[in-house]
Structure formats: C-alpha cells, structure tokens
Design brief:
Blueprint lengths: L2 E6 L13 H6 L5 E4 L6 H7 L5 E3 L7 H6 L3 E6 L2 E6 L4 H10 L5 E4 L5 E6 L2 E6 L11 E8 L2 E8 L2
Parallel strand pairs: 1-2, 2-3, 5-6, 6-8
Antiparallel strand pairs: 1-9, 4-5, 7-8, 9-10
Length: 160
C-alpha cells in the first residue's frame, strides 16, 4: 500500500496571502498526512489543512510566539519504515549534518527559500516544496510524497 503525503511550506497567511489557494485542497485530496515546513504565520492554516488530513510540522522564522511555542523546531514522522525530519531552514551543510547526527533520517523536508528543489545527498532525499503562496520569481508550489515499502517517490507541483 502506498501512503500519499501532501507537502507544503511558507504559506504566510494572512501577511502575504489572505488564504490557502483552493487548488491545494484538490491536490491534497486523499492524502494520509500533510507536512508543513514552517512559516504558517497563523494557526488558521493548520486548522484549514486538518480538514483534509493530520498536519505534522515545525515552526519557521516568521511564525509568531504562539506557534513557536506549540510547534517544534524539528518535527519527525515515521511512515513505511522511512524517517522524515521536517525543519524550516536547512541553510548550510552544518544543519544537515546535525540532523543526520540526531538519529536516522531518510527524508528531509524543508522550506524557507520559497523555491522548490529536490536533491539526494548520500541516501537522504532532501525536498523543498517551495512556497504555497509567496514564491520569489518562481511559481507557487506544493509537493506530494509517495511512500511504499522499499519505495519513495515525489512530485513537485506548480500552482496555477
């Protein structure tokens, strides 16, 4: 069985967008989890996304105190024998090494740059879904992660 996970970051609601694009609700249909890599800015983002599926995430640098107090700096989710670590800012290789030293990790989801990217470093998949509402010089975007026993796949999706 394949587990489908919605992935997004940097929603900045309501400071840079008034609400989540409706397209996200279509793309995230039938996901089992939603991973948010920080900079929600408002708790309402979590409340809206939880209408679709449970939300797992970390806080970002732009999140207010109440969110930073509720959400960890690094969140972890284990699915289909994959350990996923979620961090907002993965600046520099030193942060990556800290994550790897903190325990096993197969997938790292991060945000902060507002630009989608994917890379594989050794055996670790590093995925940035970009910004769902406020990309810089690139389209707004989200991601889907597909996990099955012994198989990991992903899709980065530009929003219209």
């Amino acid at each position: 069985m394949t587990i489908k996970i919605g992935v997004l970051s940097d929603t900045h609601i309501p400071t840079r967008a008034s609400n989540l694009p409706e397209e996200i609700f279509e793309i995230f249909q039938n996901v089992q989890y939603i991973i948010h890599a920080g900079d929600y800015v408002s708790l309402s983002v979590i409340e809206e996304l939880e209408k679709i599926a449970p939300v797992i995430g970390c806080h970002g640098n732009m999140d207010p105190y109440n969110l930073k107090n509720q959400l960890p700096r690094i969140a972890t989710l284990e699915v289909e024998e994959n350990i996923i670590k979620i961090i907002h800012d993965l600046s520099g290789r030193s942060q990556l090494k800290k994550l790897q030293k903190s325990g096993p990790v197969d997938i790292i989801i991060h945000g902060h740059t507002h630009r989608m990217s994917v890379e594989k470093l050794e055996s670790v998949l590093i995925l940035n879904p970009g910004s769902a509402t406020n990309s810089f010089l690139t389209p707004d975007s989200v991601g889907l992660l597909y996990l099955a026993p012994n198989d990991v796949d992903y899709e980065l999706i530009e929003l219209k």
